[in-house]
Specification:
The chain is of the alpha+beta class. The chain is built from eleven helices and 19 strands. It folds into two domains: 185 residues, FAD/NAD(P)-binding domain, CATH 3.50.50.60; 152 residues, 2-Layer Sandwich (D-Amino Acid Oxidase, Chain A, domain 2), CATH 3.30.9. 30% of the residues lie in helices and 25% in strands. Strands 1, 2, 9, 10, 11, 12, 18 and 19 form an eight-stranded mixed sheet that branches. An eight-stranded mixed sheet has the order 6-7-5-14-15-16-13-17, with helices on both faces. A three-stranded antiparallel sheet has the order 3-8-4, with no helix packed on it. A hairpin with a 2-residue loop joins β10 and β11.
Length: 413
């Protein structure tokens, strides 16, 4: 046992400040109820209190704090999207991320690594050039690299042309980063609680109370809880919860799997993604290779892991990194991805008065945590669709004004 731990354990003057004090019993009513205690829900509670002075907030979850997709993602942060709307949205999120550890006074282990999206064919090269130009016009650092420069940025990559899928180039995004996903949720939740919000874990929502087209509250396994406004931020369970309120969402939920290797000495600094091979990999600060692939090909409300995923992923991994042939997988898991038809989120107002939605995140929800919390708090407080969220409104599916991001989000990352 470390000496410092013993010393602090025996001190009589230890701080009595508790990050997560025992929460009181559920009250009968709140100003705002947020269903979902992941990064997005906790961030919204924080910004409601900080920016709008709304502190009588209940964050409620059927599981535990940050235990859903927040704990099941691979923690990559980037803003090199394809559409102008998507780039602007994620650029604001990255700007918030860069100051977040100081703002929340918590070590997020935010680390800029550089992000390479590999191109294995002419079509991918064209898309990379397209994305780079859109990014540059909006002030995001991205550029198209060809094979020699890819090898310079990441010398660990196998750039041989004598493989099944040779690397022809890549979209390089120097600000690409990783962060500790758990700490993001903990930091937001801790400060929201300090400002007056409550977080109630292990409390399933069994129904949404709607009267006359207006939300009145929720029904839980502990009884009804009323509120002026309700925000849902429940990722893979989005369609289920919205269905309780009488909303049918254009979302299908499908598993997204990932895994990590045993820890190894630091060797891979860059984040590597391949849309053609449906893989992505980075090395964590603990030395683990964090790897993932595309979503499973069928809808399923499950977080089970499969051998098929692992076999397919490893075959492509070894083509890019032959030196990993002796690496051992330590852990494998899955999350539930809520995929929208245009691969963009669904955020903001709904046809039900005072009922707000933060959903459709599919494979890219973690990197949007700060901006989603900030802008959804604005939406809830003002009851207006923020300009940044206008392209992601639910009503876009009625008039076919979609925000197509599939070209930049077809890999689970």
């Amino acid at each position: 046992m470390p000496f410092t731990l013993i010393k602090n354990g025996l001190k009589n003057n230890a701080s009595d400040i508790v990050d997560f004090p025992r929460q009181p019993d559920l009250k009968s009513s709140y100003d705002v109820i947020i269903v979902g205690a992941g990064g997005h829900g906790c961030a919204a509670a924080y910004y409601l209190a900080r920016d709008w002075g709304i502190k009588n907030v209940c964050v409620i979850d059927k599981g535990y704090l940050g235990g859903g997709n927040t704990a099941r993602n691979t923690a990559i942060i980037r803003s090199n999207y394809l559409t102008a709307e998507g780039v602007a949205f994620y650029k604001e999120s990255m700007d918030l991320f860069k100051e977040l550890d100081r703002e929340l006074d918590i070590n997020l282990m935010y680390s800029e690594r550089g992000h390479l999206t590999l191109a294995h064919n002419d079509a991918s090269i064209r898309t990379s050039r397209w994305r780079a130009e859109v990014n540059k016009q909006l002030g995001v650092d991205s550029e198209l690299l060809y094979t020699d420069d890819v090898a310079r940025v990441c010398p660990q990559l196998n750039v041989s042309q004598d493989v099944r899928y040779p690397i022809l180039g890549a979209l390089y995004h120097p600000p690409g980063a990783i962060a500790r996903h758990d700490a993001v949720a903990w930091g937001y939740a801790r400060d929201a609680i300090r400002m007056g919000a409550e977080v109630h874990q292990k409390t399933p929502v069994t129904d949404v109370i709607v009267e006359g087209g207006r939300v009145k509250g929720i029904q839980t396994d502990k009884g009804p809880v009323y509120a002026d406004k309700v925000l849902q931020a429940v990722a893979g369970s989005s369609s289920l919860l919205a269905g309780m309120a009488g909303l049918e969402l254009p979302i299908r939920t499908i598993p997204l799997q990932a895994c990590v290797s045993q820890p190894y000495k630091p060797i891979l600094d860059t984040i590597i993604v391949s849309g053609s091979l449906h893989i992505y990999v980075s090395q964590s600060s603990r030395g683990e290779f964090v790897m993932g692939g595309s979503t499973d090909p069928y809808p399923l409300y499950s977080t089970r892991s499969t051998l098929d995923f692992k076999e397919g992923l490893m075959s492509h991994m070894l083509e890019l990194f032959p030196f990993l042939s002796e690496a051992r997988i330590m852990r494998q898991w899955a999350g539930m991805a809520d995929m929208s038809p245009d691969f963009s989120p669904i955020m903001g107002l709904t046809p039900i008065e005072n009922y707000y939605i933060d959903a459709g995140w599919g494979t890219w929800g973690f990197k949007a945590t700060p901006v989603s919390g900030k802008r959804m708090a604005e939406c809830v407080a003002t009851n207006k669709q923020p300009a940044l969220l206008e392209p992601f409104r639910l009503s876009r599916f009625d008039n076919f004004t979609l925000t197509a991001e599939k070209g930049a989000a077809s890999v689970g990352h």
